[in-house]
Amino acid sequence: MVTIRKACNGDWGQMYRWIMQEEVRFGFTGEAISSWDEFCEYWGSRRMSWGNYVIQDDGEIVGHLWLVIGEDNIPEVGYLVGDISRWGNGIGREGCRLGVEVLSEMGFSKVRAYIKDGNERSMRVVLGLGFKQVCERDGGQKVMEKALNGSRNCTKRDVRLPANIRIQGKKGVGCFNS
Q: Are 77 and 67 in contact (CB under 8 A)?
């Protein structure tokens, strides 16, 4: 069973090992990361945000899910399944779906995903979840959007998980200890 939980300080080492794998890094649309320091700098800016999760399959950490406020204050969902042996089993799709569900429960009106040119697996995931391509960035990166039922727009300051959202048994609680 695929679940998500808030990422903890102890999860970052595993995430770094995944992002350093060439096959995993191929689909990553963020900045080029080649060292632990670059990883910490990139994810450190997002770490304190509200939306860093791990994806678990039957309790084992197999991926990373992030929800961030992006351009135009529109929430973005991103994910990776770092355990390559689990690719093709629907884990990325379910992790992404759970992230979209969190945003929908929070009342947002839409969500974006960015898909790197040539990443056919991720394109199938987001299309299967109802995303539509709205444009293409330089370099072929596809900008995908999905309408949600809410009407909420947001700023980076006002994002809080509502009390009714439960993730792995906790009510919107993270475990970062900075």
A: yes
Block means of pLDDT (10 residues each) for the chain, 178 residues, are: 88 81 66 74 60 90 88 86 89 95 90 91 95 89 90 55 40 31
Q: For residues 65 and 79, give the distance between their C-alpha atoms in angstroms, rounded to a whole number.
A: 4
Q: Partners of 6 in the beta sheet?
A: 53
Task: Report the distance separating Cα 111 and Cα 127, nearest Å.
Answer: 13
Distances (CA, A) of 58 to 55, 125, 145, 168, 171: 10, 20, 29, 12, 20
Domain count, the chain: 1
> How far apart, in whole angstroms, are the C-alpha atoms of residue 67 and residue 58?
22
Task: Count CB atoms within 10 A of the CB of residue 142.
Answer: 20
> So what's the pLDDT on residue 60?
92
User: Residue 87 is part of which domain span?
Assistant: 2-159
pTM: 0.78
For residues 49 and 161, give the distance between their C-alpha atoms in angstroms, rounded to a whole number: 11
Amino acid 170: pLDDT:
36
pLDDT for the residue 168: 40
Domain membership of residue 40 (yes or no) is yes
The enclosing domain of 65 has a CATH number of 3.40.630.30
Q: Is residue 166 part of a domain?
A: no
